[in-house]
Amino acid sequence: SQKIEQNSEALNIQEGKTATLTCNYTNYSPAYLQWYRQDPGRGPVFLLLIRENEKEKRKERLKVTFDTTLKQSLFHITASQPADSATYLCGTGGFKTIFGAGTRLFVKA
Amino acid sequence: SAVISQKPSRDICQRGTSLTIQCQVDSQVTMMFWYRQQPGQSLTLIATANQGSEATYESGFVIDKFPISRPNLTFSTLTVSNMSPEDSSIYLCSASGTSGLNEQFFGPGTRLTVL
Which residue, of A42, A67, A74, B66, has the fewest CB within 10 Å? Predict the structure, then answer.
C-alpha cells in the first residue's frame, strides 16, 4: 500500500539555524508532493507544492526538494524563528491526499 | 484560496448518540473531504464528499457509521452515528480545486469526545 513516512521524532533547533524535515514515500510515484503546517488545535495550512519534474521550489524562507530517485522530499526552513514551531505534514498529490504523520519542530530562542 | 468553517467546534456526547458536523466553504469548490485525526497523529481520510451523489468511503469507513451529505458545491455534513468512546477524535473538513493544483484548505476541526 502507499506509504508516506516522516520522522516521528521531534526536531529541536536553535533560532537562526536551518531546519530540515524529511518525507519518504513508498509503493507510489506521486505527480507532486505537498507540505502543510499544523498548529495545535487548528487544521493544516497549505505551504508548498512541488511537482515531480521540479527539483526545488522556494517561497520566502521555505525550500522544498523532490528527489524521485530517492523517493524523498526535503523541507527546509532557513533562518528559523520560534514562530516556526509547529507540526509539518507531507502529503501526496493527486485526487486525494495521503498524509504522513508529521514532524514536530521546536525552534528555541 | 478558500475559507472553511465548521460547526460545532467541539462537543461532548454520550455513547450511542449521533452528532452531525457541518462544513461551509466561502466559495464553490470541486472536492470536499472529511478526515479524522487522533491527538498527535496524522490525518486519516474518511471519505470524499461528492456533490449530488453518494460519498466515496475509504477502507475501514462505512456509510452507516459516517453518513455524509453534500447538497451543493459549498456545503457538506458528516454524521458520526451510534458513537462509542473510540470515535473520540478531531474531525476535519477540507476542500480543494480552487486553483486546479489540488492543494487543500482545511477547516478548524471539530473536537469530539464520547463518554
Answer: A67
